[in-house]
From TrEMBL:
Record-annotated membrane-spanning stretches: 21-41
Gene for this chain: KTR5
Organism: Zygosaccharomyces mellis
Name this polypeptide is given: Alpha-1,2-mannosyltransferase
Molecular function, one GO term: alpha-1,2-mannosyltransferase activity
Gene Ontology terms: biological process: cell wall mannoprotein biosynthetic process; protein N-linked glycosylation
Length: 512
C-alpha cells in the first residue's frame, strides 16, 4: 500500500485547513491564465488575427491545402512540366545569401521539380560563383550580364550630373535607399527590363527569387502548372504598404497615363485605389464633402436636420440652426494626393516574390506604361519601387480572378515573413528525392496543425505574420474576393453608396 510520508501528509492537512485560501488562489491562477491566453492573445485586445481566418473564395484560394503526394502528382498523365524558370538579379559578393536561398528552395520544392535558374548581374559572374551555384541546384542554370542599356537609367547616360544630384538629394533627405544609385537602377530594372532579357523571355513563366530568403513549408505541387490550369497570371505572397515619400508622384503619372492612352482599369485596380467619388448622387455639394465612407452618415444627418429646419416646421429648433451656421462657416475638405477623385492607398504586392507569366508584363500596355514612367523620370527623381509600379500596372490590365495568393507558401525576405499554419489531416511524411536534402530528427519536426491552416510541413519563425502586420491590405484583398462585393461590378468603384437609401434609413431613425 502507498504510504504517505509524514511531511507530505502534514502539508496536505495544512492545505485542507486553508481550503478557502487555496481555492481562491487556484481560481485566481486559472482566471489570469484564461485572461492572458484567451482574452489578450485571441480576444479583446487583438480581435481575431487575420492569419487565423479563412481567406478564399471561388475567385481565388490555395490550389491545395496541406501536402500533395508529389510522386503520384508528377506521374499523373494530365501533369506537364512547364516552360518556366527562376530568375534572380544578384552580385558576386552575395554568394552566401544566394546559396542560402537556393538550398531553401531546392529543399522545399525544386528537388522534385528541377526547374532551371537564370542569374543576372550588371558585371560578369565569377567562376567561383558559377561553380558553387551549379553544385547546389538540381536544374539547369544560366548566367548572364544585363546590358548597359537595360541597366543604366537614361538620365545617367545623358546627364550624369543631374542624375547624381537627384540621387544625392534623396540621400540627404533620408529616404530609405534614396541615396543609392544602384538601388534606383535595380528598381527600374525589375520594373521594366528583367522580363525583356533573352534568358527570361524564352520562357512562358518565371519565379522571382532573391538572396537571403527562406521557405518554411514544403511546396509539393507545381505552382506554374496550377497557375496555368486555373488561368492565373500573377501570384503573390506578401502585401504591404509603400512608404509615401518614395512615390509621391507615381499615382499622378499613372492617372495621366490612363487618360492619355484611354485605358479602362480592370477590377484589380480596386485593390490599390481609393475612389472618393463614392456617392450615387448628382448633388455636387454632397459629392465634394463626402470622400470616405465614414463621412456619409454625419453629412447626411446634417443635411436632413438642416432641411427639416428650413422647412420651418420647427422654428425653435436650435439644433437645426446650429448645423446650418456650422455648415455655412466650414470649408470643403481637401484630400491631398487625390487625382480625379482617386487616391493611391500605397498597397502593393511585395515583388521580391513573384510567380507570373512573362507576358503579364511583356505586353503592349505594360510596356507603354513603363516607358511612360521612365520618360517622366520617377526612377531617378523619386525612388519608385518596382513593387508599386508592378501593382499599379497589374491594376490596369488584370481582374481580381487573374491573381493568385500563395497563402500556403511560407516565405521570408528581410524583416517580413508570411508563414501559414499547417492544414489539418493533410500532412504527409517527407521523402527526399535528392540525398543532399535529407532531414535529420529535428529538421523533420513540423508545427502543429490548425483549423484554417493550409500549409504543408511548415516550420514557422516566431514572428508576427505579415497577414497580421499589414492586415489592412489583406482585408482589402479578402473583401475583393467576396462574390457579393458590389464594388466589383462595373468599372471604377465609384458611386457605390446609394444616397437615397441611406437618407431614408436615417430619416426613419430620426423620425423626421
Ligand atoms: N548585380 C547587381 N544586383 C543588384 C544591385 N543592386 C541590387 N541588386 C540585387 O537586387 C536585389 C534586390 O536588391 P536589395 O538591395 O537586396 O534590395 P532589398 O533589400 O531586397 O530591397 P527591399 O526589399 O526594398 O528592402 C538583390 O538580389 C540584389 O542582389 C547591383 O548594383 N548589381
Ligand atoms: C517557351 O516559351 C517561350 C515564350 O513564349 C517560347 O518562345 C519558347 O519557344 C517556349 N519553349 C518551349 C520549349 O516550349
Amino acid at each position: 500500500m502507498l504510504r504517505i510520508r509524514p511531511k507530505f501528509r502534514r502539508a496536505c492537512e495544512e492545505i485542507s485547513d486553508n481550503k478557502d485560501f487555496y481555492l481562491k488562489l487556484a481560481t485566481a491562477i486559472v482566471f489570469v491564465y484564461l485572461l492572458v491566453t484567451k482574452v489578450f492573445v485571441k480576444g479583446v485586445v487583438f480581435p481575431i488575427e487575420t492569419s487565423d481566418t479563412y481567406i478564399g473564395s471561388a475567385r481565388d484560394k490555395p490550389f491545395y491545402e496541406g501536402c500533395v503526394d508529389t510522386l503520384s502528382y508528377l506521374k499523373d498523365p494530365s501533369y506537364k512540366k512547364m516552360n518556366a524558370t527562376f530568375v534572380m538579379l544578384t552580385k558576386n559578393d552575395e554568394i552566401d545569401g544566394v546559396l542560402h536561398s537556393v538550398n531553401s528552395l531546392e529543399s522545399h520544392f525544386n528537388q522534385w521539380f528541377h526547374y532551371p535558374y537564370v542569374f543576372l548581374n550588371d558585371v560578369p559572374f565569377s567562376e567561383e560563383f558559377k561553380k558553387e551555384i551549379k553544385n547546389a541546384v538540381s536544374g539547369d542554370v544560366h548566367f548572364d550580364i544585363v546590358d548597359k542599356y537595360m541597366w543604366q537609367i537614361p538620365e545617367e547616360r545623358t546627364d550624369p550630373e543631374a542624375f547624381k544630384n537627384a540621387i544625392d538629394t534623396q540621400g540627404d533627405r533620408g529616404f530609405l535607399y534614396g541615396g543609392s544609385a544602384s538601388y534606383h537602377r535595380m528598381c527600374r530594372f525589375y520594373s521594366g527590363s528583367f522580363y525583356k532579357h533573352p534568358l527570361v523571355r524564352r520562357h512562358e513563366w518565371y519565379w522571382r527569387i532573391e538572396p537571403e530568403i527562406d521557405f518554411y513549408c514544403d511546396i509539393t505541387y507545381d505552382p506554374f502548372f496550377e497557375m496555368a490550369k486555373h488561368n492565373k497570371k500573377y501570384g503573390f505572397n506578401i502585401m504591404i504598404e509603400e512608404i509615401y515619400a518614395t512615390v509621391p508622384n507615381l499615382f499622378r503619372y499613372t492617372m495621366a497615363f490612363i487618360k492619355k492612352y484611354r485605358i479602362k482599369p480592370k477590377t484589380l485596380w480596386k485593390l490599390f485605389s481609393m475612389n472618393h467619388n463614392i456617392l450615387k448622387t448628382s448633388n455636387q455639394e454632397l459629392q465634394s464633402w463626402v470622400n470616405f465612407y465614414r463621412d456619409v452618415e454625419p453629412k447626411l444627418a446634417e443635411k436632413i436636420v438642416i432641411e427639416d429646419f428650413l422647412r420651418g416646421e420647427n422654428p425653435e429648433d436650435s439644433v437645426g440652426l446650429g448645423f446650418l451656421i456650422r455648415r455655412s462657416k466650414a470649408a470643403t475638405p481637401i484630400v491631398e494626393d487625390q487625382f480625379d477623385n482617386e487616391e493611391y492607398n500605397l498597397y502593393h504586392f511585395w515583388s521580391n516574390f513573384e510567380i507570373a507569366r512573362v507576358d503579364t508584363f511583356d505586353n503592349p500596355i505594360y510596356n507603354a506604361y513603363f516607358e511612360y514612367l521612365d520618360r517622366v523620370g520617377g526612377f531617378w527623381r523619386e525612388r519608385w519601387g518596382d513593387a508599386p509600379v508592378h501593382s499599379l500596372g497589374l491594376g490596369l490590365m488584370l481582374d481580381v480572378e487573374d491573381i493568385h495568393y500563395f497563402r500556403d507558401i511560407g516565405y521570408q525576405h528581410s524583416i517580413m515573413a508570411h508563414c501559414p499554419k499547417n492544414a489539418p489531416n493533410k500532412q504527409l511524411v517527407y521523402k527526399e528525392a535528392d540525398s543532399r536534402r535529407k532531414r535529420g530528427f529535428f529538421k523533420n519536426r513540423y508545427d502543429s496543425t490548425f483549423e484554417n491552416g493550409c500549409g504543408c510541413r511548415c516550420k514557422c519563425p516566431r514572428q508576427r505574420d505579415t497577414e497580421d502586420k499589414s492586415w489592412e491590405c489583406m482585408h482589402r484583398w479578402k473583401n475583393l474576393l467576396q462574390p457579393e462585393d458590389e464594388e466589383l461590378n462595373g468599372g471604377l468603384h465609384e458611386g457605390y453608396v446609394d444616397v437615397k437609401r441611406e437618407e431614408d434609413k436615417l430619416r426613419k431613425l430620426f423620425q423626421i
